[in-house]
Amino acid sequence: MTDRLIVPSGMSRRHFLGHLAATSLAVPAMQFFGSLEANAQQLRKQNKSCILLWMGGGPSHMDTWDLKPDSEKNGGPFKPIATSASGVKISEHLPTVAKQMHHLNIIRSLNSKEGNHDRGTYMMHTGYTPNPTVVHPAFGSICSYELGEKLENFDLPHCISINTPGEGAGFLGMAHSPFVVQNPNAPVANLKPPAGVDMARMNRRREMYSAIEANFISQRRGQGAIDHSAVYNKTLRMMNSRYTNAFKLDDEPAAVRDAYGRGSFGSGCLMARKLVEQGVTFVEVSLGGWDTHANAFDTLSNRLQPELDKGMGTLVADLAQRGLLEKTLVVWMGEFGRTPRINQDGGRDHWPQSWSVVMGGAGMKGGQVIGATDKDGVDIIDQPVGPMDLIGSMTKAMGIKVDTQYTTPRGRPIKVVDGGKPIDQLFG
Asked: CATH for 49-185+249-426, among 3.30.390.30, 3.30.390.50, 3.90.950.10, 3.40.720.10?
């Protein structure tokens, strides 16, 4: 098992090793950390990335990936269409994605057990049920921690959230929390000096602030201060980095902007492609509005699915055309699905018992359907999958050891994949 130590507040890695040197554990400990560093360097050379397409509100799998046209009570008005994957059919309102299904896999048998928005969001990002005694890191923060370059060696964050705050880094610390892009169609906030402040004045401010912060850190006030300093210094580097062009969409051809869609989701997908092309490890792009308790089918057919279709379909095609899909994991999910039954308001309600997610790329096989629900979409009848199985599959696809385990600052062991395992068919 690979155990990664999250050092206690005020204790650096060097300080910890200094204590080990005085014990009989010194030699094995040095070998242990050396092997971890070698493994980390090898992972970074693979340069894998993950793009998570997050459907906030709980998307209806019954009207996207697992249609039941023969179910009189649950089917809904949408018709299934053929895709580029043999025998795989999806919603008629996703024609662009349909052309890319040979790259993707639909998992139609997920049971996540959490029908509350906040708890479901936490679980689908971490694999864990919320626990008052520990805040688990989201998968994006794990990718940043395991695969990202050291903060001082790369000008961009390795965990970025677009259109959403994303989920936090938990005990991994703020250095691996998401960098938030609130609106991909607007300039990123705080990457320029304040109005009226020239660079000479900015540099004086930075020197004064650095002196104060260095003094604070020297008093061993905790890991938070160290992480804050690293993030602050990285932000300053970003202000003058050529890599920040990845946040700019104005230089993209009009035809590309139109193909992705110029709304916040399509623009976010285009920005995600630009970011992983520059070496960013994890990007989450959110499309909200899926909490369709009423008037669902108008909302889905006129807004949500067309916007999803252009952004997701063009992203997968663009990654494949540029040779990036083989090292980029693309995942589509929300916090839960929606009821097979259509309610009296013409919508569907919360439903975590049997729903769908989509993933592909990063060396996975494509064009598959895994698991199944019954003719009315109510019960899973083949290969139940849990959230930890998804996290395990994502972990394996990214090249992270599935048995990786952390020790929190309070000494608690936490596994990245706890009780789940990768889905074999994805890697066959």
From this structure: 3.40.720.10
| Bridge partner list, 337 | 351
Hey, what are 43's tokens?
């992972």
Residue 377, classified by CB atoms within 10 Å of its CB into exposed (0-12), middle (13-18) or buried (19+), is buried
The reported pTM is 0.85
The answer to whether the CB of 409 falls within 8 A of the CB of 9 is: yes
Average pLDDT, stretch 38-63?
Answer: 81
Please answer whether residues 114 and 58 qualify as being in contact, where contact means their C-beta atoms are separated by less than 8 angstroms.
no
Q: Specify whether the CB–CB gap between 127 and 388 falls below 8 A.
A: yes
> What is d(CA 143, CA 147) in angstroms, rounded to the nearest whole number?
5
> 28-42: string of b/e by CB count within 10 Å (b at 16+)?
ebeeebeeeeebbee
Q: Where are the domains of the chain?
A: 1-46, 49-185+249-426, 189-236
pLDDT in tens, 311-342: 999 999 999 999 999 999 999 999 999 999 99
Assign residue 149 a region (left: φ > 0; alpha: ψ between -120 and 50; beta: otherwise): beta
What is the pLDDT, as a whole number, of residue 30? 33
